[in-house]
Amino acid sequence: MEHKASVLENLGEVRAMIKRHKRNDTLFAALGLLCLMFGLLTLMLLFWQLIADGYPKFNLEFLTEFPSRRAGRAGLLSAWVGSLLVMTVTFLSAVPVGVAAGLYLEEYAPKNWFTDLIEINVSNLAGVPSIIYGLLALGLFVYILGFGQSILTAGLTLGLLILPIVIVSTREAIRAIPVSIREAAYGVGATKWQVVYDHVFKYSYGGILTGVIIGMSRALGETAPIITIGALTFIAFLPPSPITSEPPFLNFEWLSSGFTVMPIQMFNWLSRPDHAFHVNAAATGALIIVVTLLMNGGAIWLRYKIRKNIKW
User: At what angle do helices 275-309 and 262-270 cross, to 10 degrees?
Assistant: First the structure.
């Protein structure tokens, strides 16, 4: 009887402990939801304020006119074209190198102290302030290599900025592939390259693409490194077109052209005392947020779509 009473007493203590832990779980979940709603509400209020302030400039003329000293005539043409060209260089310089580096570190690199050192540095570089990349680019690309204050310099700078993000996201996507996929491929006689290219890369493509798009969306809104390398705050012309009507139909003069981007143009308008320029800046900020949200939403949708079609 005493043993039975002891068991019942212990059972009551266990039940009380489980009840207490469930209550703590509920409180933690409620606190997390409250913090999430607070962040989302703050973002929505700020976004709504930008839309309300910049609504008068939500028209096609704002996107097709050059900046002007008169706020009513000022547009965003040179800024969004410059952003598009800079993002093109950023993508071409960072994505192939980042994906290849991630594949090498995860599939080919030997497991030793040197590889561990590289992995630690890559992870740390993902958290380095963007202004540091701007200072590095100013010394390396502008002065040592002589690229000047050009689209090429800006694209390479932002490419360095998102390179650790691409590498880390590539490695994480590869790690999510089950080991059984590799073992099955080796079991039927596949080579290392066939396993990596036909199976590992194919199945991790969705995660890699998500990391690339998120990195590009971060680069789109960066201002500090672009200011550091000397981007123009007022520019009333477009760079030369990358495509020509004569053979070889490609023109690379635009890489050495002066430029501005949307965050810089927004910063320039905010620095003006005239309230009409602040309306232009609000419209630009709303446009940047919309493009960023579309890129991130597209990344989530693509990842879901790709993973849905994968048959393990």
Answer: 150
Q: Is 309 helix (H, G, I), strand (E, B) or coil?
A: helix
**The pLDDT value given to residue 312:** 61
- The rounded distance, in Å, linking the Cα atoms of 79 and 272 is 17
**CA 226/CA 66 separation, integer angstroms:** 20
Instruction: Quote the CA–CA distance of 1 and 115 in Å, as a whole number.
Output: 64
Cis amide linkage into residue 67, ω under 30° from 0: no
- By C-alpha distance, which of 290, 157, 306, 133 is closest to 217? 290
Task: Report the 10 Å Cβ neighbour count for 294.
Answer: 12
Residue whose C-alpha is closest to residue 128's, from 160, 106, 96, 156: 160
Helix (H, G, I), strand (E, B) or coil at 131: helix
Q: What is the pLDDT of residue 90?
A: 94
Q: How far is CA 60 from CA 57, 65, 75, 169, 261, in A?
A: 9, 9, 9, 37, 18
Residue 3 φ/ψ, nearest 5 degrees: -65, -40
**Are the C-beta atoms of residues 69 and 229 closer than 8 Å to each other?**
no
* Dist CA 177 CA 185 (whole Å): 13
Cα(125)–Cα(137) distance, integer angstroms? 15
Q: What are phi and psi of 254, to 5 degrees?
A: -65, -20
What pLDDT was estimated at residue 164? Answer: 92
Which is more confident, 115 or 13? Answer: 115
Its sign, for the CA torsion 218, 219, 225, 227, is negative
Rounded to the nearest integer, the mean pLDDT of the chain is 86
Q: For residues 49-86, b (16+ Cβ closer than 10 Å) or e, as one string?
A: ebbebbeebeeeebbebbbeeebeebbbbbbbbbbebb
Helix (DSSP H) and strand (DSSP E) numbers for the chain: 12, 0
Place of tokens 């960023």: 292
